[in-house]
Specification:
By secondary structure, the protein is α+β, with helices and mostly antiparallel strands. Helix content is about 15%, strand content about 45%. The strands form two sheets. It has a 14-stranded antiparallel barrel. It has a two-stranded antiparallel ribbon with strand order 2-3. Strand 19 and strand 20 form a beta hairpin. The protein is elongated and about 85 Å long. The relative contact order is 0.17.
Length: about 525
Amino acid sequence: MPVVYYRIFSPVKNVIILLKVCCMSLYKSCLFISFLLLSDFLMAQNYQALHGSSYAGSLSPGNNPASIVHVPYAWDITPFSVQLKQSTNAYTIKNYSLLSSPNNITIDAVNGIKKRFVFTNQDVHLLNARFSLNTKSAIAFGANLRSYMYGTSSESNYQDTSYSLADYLAINLQHIPLSAQSAGSAWAELYGSYAHTIIDDGYRLLNAGVTLKVNKSLAGGYGRTQGVQYVQDPGADGVMGYLLTQGNLQYGYSSNVDLIDSNKTSTENRKAFLKNTYAGVSADVGIEYILLSTDDEAEDNDYAYNTRIGVSIMDIGSSKYQHSSKSRYAIAGKEGITDTLLENKFNSVRNLDDFNDSLASIAGYITGLAGDFVIYKPTRLVINVDQHLANNFFINAEITVPLIPLAAKNSLYIKDMNLLALTPRWETKKFGAYLPVLMNTRQQVWVGGAFRAGPLLLGTHNLANLFSKNSMQNGGAYLALTIRPGKNHDRQREASNGKLSKQQERNLNCPKF
């Protein structure tokens, strides 16, 4: 695993050392966390194909808790699902696709002048279920494991022909000050959702829902480097060098990561890892407005609709962690810190203790970080519009607006990469085909694809992950298994008590002119 991280983030090898420090500590504490938490499951909250669909079932609370009511099944259960999404412009994964073997995989840094970024999120759903209490109320519940991580940097120039720190500093004189930041958070959650129909006049519905979650903060980390500056320093031998003049670095991660011991069994490590963690609560809220279908062809479908509009606020809350004793805050300013000294100090670093010792020897000021830190969840506003076109064809549009950056200034938070999505789909009770077109917050545009056959949903965020061996760094995949009853909810109710269906009741209403 460390070799993979080194290959992925090789550009920071030649960055001025404080920026290098930030990236190393940050990605170690955040990316390692993400892979560690899910490695015992499958390692692969964006099942994009099903957003707005009546067949999302027990996966729908992950997009809007109000959407669990108007569903053509009395119940459904998702015993297992997994999803992975990632986006970056910092490196390229080569010689690997979703349809090939990873034996020949290589990971190369991307050259050029740019602001670099990396985003990942993943989740595992276990025993998620949804049940209709009656025609106007429904509940859902289950357990999830979730992880988010992001890293961004200021504009800089990286070239793989730069073999020394001095080479890197020379081509970045026009880009100082340098900066970077990142945060990662992983947690387990038990959730319960309730939704109810507030308005039902036979032509339209207004549903409202809420999800409450009990969370277990599993692991988290962050890093910040700001204001890194340096000046040219002609040496006595006439060789141009560089002096570090300004900059500050702060990095921290949860103390339970230090308890992982390669000499212990996975069971022992898991128990130690979970021992010193915090619990908390979070919530989702949402509403859904539905214009029901009045077409003659809808008489055989009590749940037919023309338009479905959902508005939700997701992941309201935060995760709390205890700082590791190896977390640090350092400020540059010590005299005589040259590029040659920096390389000599850090080239032999083998672990974080060595790293902290080297950092202390070149910093103007350094201190350990104690106590707790809080990372806010990716709180966001999601607006989803689903339109029935004809027969079994629909189109769904969605926009995601991050809210935490507006409310929590100078706070740690993780980011969701979703921005815009447009998903044409064809679906019936047993089958579905989906073609989501996604644009994320970094203006990357992906064309994804998914299909549903009976209980199985299989999809990819980016079809290039199937057909290209150089695109796995952008995209991801998802898989879900959802079990449903053989008959639709209202047909069961009609057969049992002889009452009129909702569509039949609607047809008795006086026509509007």
